[in-house]
Amino acid sequence: MQYKMVENMKFDLILEKAVESRDLQAEELEFAMQEITEGRISDIKIAAFITALKTKGENAGEIAAVAEFMRKHSTKVKTNAKYLVDTAGTGGDNSRTFNISTCAAIVAAASGVCVAKHGNRAISSNCGSADVLEELGVKICTDAKTAEMQLTNMNIAFLFAPAFHPAMKKVAAVRKELGFKSIFNLAGPLANPANAKKQIIGVYDKAKQNKIAEALQILRTEKSIVVSSNIDEISISEKTRILEVSDNKIEEYFVEPEDFGFKKQKLGKILVETKTESACKILEVLNGKKGTARDIVLLNAGAAIYASGFVNSIGKGISLAEKAIDSGKAFEKLEMLKTFDKRIGD
Length: 346
Prior knowledge:
CATH superfamily of the largest domain: Nucleoside phosphorylase/phosphoribosyltransferase catalytic domain
Shape: globular
Radius of gyration: 19 Å
Largest sheet: 4 strands, mixed
Distance between the termini: 42 Å
Strand order of the largest sheet: 4-5-6-7
């Protein structure tokens, strides 16, 4: 997507437009982001800009424009993987569930698809994907060469967002200080450094789900499923609304645990307070323990496998995910991640 720069544009005029709750054009977003990331805008004005967009309500075009800017300025990860998928989400659902999508990513990779999981540390929750991976003993990937080797050798890499989006450093401190969810929570998952054209994205806010799907459509995703329930995952406790984006169309449908042979279960058994507790839940699942944690991981891993194009239904994806866990391959995948640096060094 190429944007023609608007001549004589001033950041202050764009900021004023946002403050007045007027939607911004893609060219305006690109200009504003360029000014911000190149250090020409004060933190106060950056905070005002983020807050104005939040108050106005970010539309799909704005989300897509920020995602496109982030993609353009990211550190690229090259891969020829056919079934490449990302399991990033917007986070911030405040549900305190363990890191379901991180566990699902490991299971999906063990099932035969290639996963370039794009993630960060906790911003609005108590444990981000990077936090729990470190707790599990996995060294976070911070450079493209290592990520490319991991994708080639193990079918999986966890791409630490701050390392692959150096241009966003100026925004990071302001976001942390503001503390609330912003356009970057929505655009970030759409800016995978490995250019993953297939994704499963969990959305913390059902009102944002349509916008994320429409933004993916603008960005010409090959196939993505955007999910929203009482958490930012496919839920084990209630109906989940799915927007599937492919062939430049958006299809809406709903799934329930019973559709795939699971019983509805309360989330209480999979709530955690610390990264240690989250890591323990992941280990239990990968070691084959039955229960709510396993079931919700199977749902989401199955959906990720489906989104990759490796199978033609979520149900078939779940079957592969079950085999990956029960055969021990999913746990082996985690062990491979933990020892990758040592094995490469040897």
